[in-house]
Q: What sequence folds into this?
């Protein structure tokens, strides 16, 4: 790969497609999740990755980080993790006799928050200011985080012992919740072949994964995606979808206005990635599930009947009239 900086929309899209190609050298069968992470980078969003153990959640983020010329850190969330272990804290310097702020792992471009639901709410909340305001306040001083900054957090959806459910306020800070499923048979066979041929997930360099995109190109792509045109009819369609979730008999809690702005941003990024200069209802529908599935709550009776959030949201899409 060359170090030339992409400038045109076509070059920027090609660079982002190169990211998907490089990630595919290590991660098999998770193309949708890769696209979701790219969209989050384009919209300054954060991503919650949910899946059973062994579906490459951590490997996916590690590989994505390697394809970007950005700083990245991994933080394993545990029950004894303290807020200062995330954001940083004052430490005594015996050489000067003063207290100095020692930056925590949150001071990076991409933070891999591994098993975020294994740490208590007090530590989880330490991420709230960083995720929303992109800054850390300590000892009366506000310190800005690097730009770009993204939290990619993983959690196991089936294990509850020793875990702490993320509060609604923090869930709402994630642009998307991406569900990583077990790969299809052919993809799993391909995965096994790679391991049979000597693939080591801890040595991404040996797998040929190389950086293809930097902060300057990412900023240019972000600006281009933000410039996608949106008609009043499509804006009204997003609002109608949101209002339909609030009226759904299966929903205890529909989406908020913040969810509509998140859906709009993600849909614009997806439209730009696919070569469109204006937003269509198809782009909105494509992004609705990952952007809204963690922002709504089902009624208890719906959960008892085995209804899923995704099924209710698909029903909402079918019920709301699409603008021509």
A:
């Amino acid at each position: 790969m060359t170090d030339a900086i992409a400038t045109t929309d076509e070059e920027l899209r090609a660079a982002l497609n190169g990211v998907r190609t490089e990630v595919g050298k290590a991660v098999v069968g998770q193309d949708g999740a890769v696209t979701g992470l790219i969209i989050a980078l384009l919209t300054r969003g954060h991503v919650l990755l949910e899946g059973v153990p062994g579906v490459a959640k951590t490997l996916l983020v590690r590989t994505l980080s390697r394809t970007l010329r950005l700083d990245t850190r991994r933080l394993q969330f545990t029950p004894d993790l303290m807020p200062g272990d995330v954001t940083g804290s004052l430490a005594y310097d015996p050489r000067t006799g003063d207290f100095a702020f020692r930056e925590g792992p949150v001071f990076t471009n991409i933070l891999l928050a591994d098993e975020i639901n294994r740490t208590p709410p007090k530590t989880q909340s330490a991420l709230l200011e960083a995720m929303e305001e992109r800054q850390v306040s300590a000892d009366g001083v506000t310190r800005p985080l690097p730009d770009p900054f993204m939290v990619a957090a993983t959690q196991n959806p089936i294990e509850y012992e020793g875990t702490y459910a993320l509060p609604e306020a923090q869930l709402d800070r994630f642009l998307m919740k991406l569900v990583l499923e077990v790969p299809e048979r052919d993809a799993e066979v391909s995965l096994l072949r790679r391991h049979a041929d000597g693939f080591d997930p801890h040595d991404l360099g040996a797998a040929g994964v190389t950086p293809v995109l930097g902060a300057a190109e990412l900023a240019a792509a972000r600006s281009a995606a933000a410039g996608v045109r949106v008609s009043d009819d499509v804006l009204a369609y997003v609002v109608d979808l949101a209002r339909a979730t609030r009226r759904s008999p299966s929903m205890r809690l529909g989406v908020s206005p913040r969810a509509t702005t998140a859906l709009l941003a993600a849909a614009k990024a997806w439209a730009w990635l696919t070569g469109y200069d204006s937003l269509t209802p198809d782009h909105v529908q494509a992004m609705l599930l990952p952007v809204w599935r963690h922002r709504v709550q089902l009624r208890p009776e719906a959960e008892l009947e085995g209804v899923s959030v995704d099924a209710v949201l698909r029903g909402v899409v079918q019920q709301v009239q699409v603008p021509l």
In short: The chain has a mean pLDDT of 89. The chain is about 45% helix and 15% strand.
